[in-house]
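During the second half of the funding period, the structural biology subgroup turned its attention to how the target accommodates small molecules. The most pressing case was adenosine-5'-triphosphate, which had performed well in the primary screen but for which no bound structure existed. We therefore specified the complex as follows and requested a full 3D prediction, including the ligand pose.
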Amino acid sequence: MRYQKLAELYEKLSSTTKRLEKIEILSSFLKELPEEDKDVLYLLLGDIYPEYDEKKIGISNQLAIKAISKATGIPNAKIIQEWKFSGDLGEVSKKLTKNKKQVTLQSHVLTINKVLENLRKLPDLVGKGTIGKKLSLITELLTSATPLEALYLIRTLIGDLRIGLKESTIRESISSAFFNKDKEASKIIQEAIDKTNDISAVFEIAKEGGLKELKKIPLVVGKPIKVMLAQKVSSIKEGFKALGENVGIEYKYDGFRLIIHKKEKEIKLFTRRLENVTLQFPEVVEYIREYVKGDSFILDTEAVGFDKETKEYKPFQEISQRIKRKYNIEKLQKKLPIEIQVFDIIYYNGKSQLKEPFKKRTTLIKKIVKNHPKKIVYAKQIITNNEKKAEEFYKKSLEDNQEGIMMKNLDAVYQPGSRVGHMLKIKPEERDFDLVITGAEYGTGKRSGWLSSFILSCRDKDKFLEIGKVGTGITEKVGSGKVTFEELTRKIKPLTIKEKDRQVTIKPKIVVTITYQEIQKSQNYSSGFALRFPRFTTLRPDRNTKDITTLSEVKIDYGKQKRN
Ligand code: ATP
């Protein structure tokens, strides 16, 4: 097929912003599209390979300008000037090609295959002379291009297609072309896309084999898949209401998602965004080899950072650099160790686990993963229909520096790529108050000698009224960036007004920001309110006690919350 035909399609698609019209246009195109040109579907998304493939075109504006210059004989400076005027290098290329064609009238033979062939050579070029080679591959295409082709070639090269086409529109167009826009068909196509991340393969199977074959598309170990995502609820009660009685609850670990594939000897690690990060985590490859049984499997996990000395979990931000870092890995691995928490299994020894109930998948995980804390473990899970127990577990997760909890229906399947209603997340709302510390209590165990629980107060005119206690969000460890118990103890001691047993009452001087999930009425504190799940965020030396949250602001927020 000629590239011109695709360029005309791009043009038609960008002539409307209406999704239904785009679907109409694209589905007629797909009906006629010969199988040998199926990779046009990658081009429609601005790609040259399936989504999971890491090879991308990646051409800079600068190189594109040079190529236009070489193909048209017009100096760079003139092209840059035109570009400043129109803001679209594609349009510049189109205009200059048109002017040139009137003079030279070259024969035109640009096919889709030729375009893909040249574009696919680009990411493979490395080392000396790369720029020159890239330039000639692009110039070769541009010199044979019609003005319209030049427009879309350049836009494709610089990754700015501007046709307003999303994957979901392609899905609906395939559905409309081959299955009469059947609702069920859209779902099956989407599932096939999520399993394969290969839109061209899905098109081919839809066209040739229909829904029956689409349903049969297998999971391929070693090829990244899109993970299942959670919906959010704001309370445990709401969670139970949505999920029923048969609920497994796990910590929502504050790390990053890591999907682990093993096929015989080969182990690959992928992020949620389908990036291959195997090289960055050599220790994980080793843990999998040593502590997980099975010839082939796909595990869904969360990688969680911990402090190498205290072994306490660390927030994601502190380990995030490990995902991108590709050098000095060994050093970083020692400095920022991670633990793998396995919470789901998608494939095991030749068999997809997608349709198995979650409970069975969890049992399988326990069978094959040999727990080695601070290396690899299966996610701790409680099974309960008791709200109180769930609340306690939630509280514990926050105390353990995690984000909250996940509530999962034990009978549910695994749906790749979907934000499902049978896996729910609950984490504290990011609401915060500035409050003042008016008292504290000495800790026990490893916190003895330090004040470890702090009484917080809001202001009511010139009085301070207690509203809760906080112990979460403060650390024992110096140097983590968070406030330490030691530092707070040091600040508080000179402010002591009264000391009785382990309790101290202090002058209201230290202002802090506290996040919390909810305000409740309470007899326990003089304000008449209590904060649920308060967490220490930061000291506010810049704030005066006059600036802190007032009782009437608390009342307003409580009222708002009730209305919601
Ligand atoms: P968030 O910003 O809340 O993490 P998200 O969009 O990244 O949201 P969601 O699917 O909505 O992801 O929330 C669940 C995320 O929590 C997962 O992507 C995963 O990385 C993480 N997670 C931590 N612990 C678990 C667990 N036990 N089960 C499932 N996911 C978990």
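Two results from this model are relevant to the next phase. The pocket of adenosine-5'-triphosphate is lined by residues 229-230, 250-253, 257, 302, 343, 379, 406, 425 (CB under 6 Å). The two ends are 57 Å apart (CA to CA).
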